[in-house]
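Entry
Fold in token form

___
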Amino acid sequence: MKPLRIALTKGRLEKQAVELLTQAGIDCSMLADKKRKLIFQSEQQPVSFFLVKAVDVLTYVKHGAADIGIVGRDILLESSSSYYEMLDLEIGKCSFCLASTPDFDPTDYRRKTIATKYPNITAQYFREKGQDVEIIKIEGSVEIAPLLGLADAIVDIVETGATLHDNGLVIYEEMYPISARLIVGKAALKQKKVQIFNLIDELEQVIKEGVRK
């Protein structure tokens, strides 16, 4: 049996995903001592993992290098890649928020400038609200944009709100809830359907038991 190839998002989400997969009976022991390795093959089960940046999970799944990907919904909302979203893993929870300085007035209908790492999501949100905004894409810390007068407000992912608070910003609107999702490539779903759905069944059971607790 060919191994099920799973692309994991490096960092905090990786740790949470590994815990969830382990509870679902998947051998993740080889990930305990990663060092600088990026590809891992289980000696106990037909499963392999590799670690990539969140935005690259979609690319590996789309082109068939990975059968399954675990990635935040924020990446999925911002992308137009081809994949099947199979399961909300209910980990990595946070939300997209509109934030700015305390003197910001979200009801002011003048054309606003919004700084964000997520221009597509931001454009969609304001389009749904019927508001015309100018969007400035920033790759680094967006929190300083309103403070320096570059933008009226920002759209960013917020988990605890501590970074916003430390920079004197206030949350005005919670836009979209975010959590990690399990995605599957179209070819993989045909070729490894039984393996994939067995894994999904196990994960669903773990998630349900976690909710009951």
Summary: The mean pLDDT is 93. Residues 94-178 form a domain with the D-Maltodextrin-Binding Protein; domain 2 fold (CATH 3.40.190.10). The two ends are 35 Å apart (CA to CA).
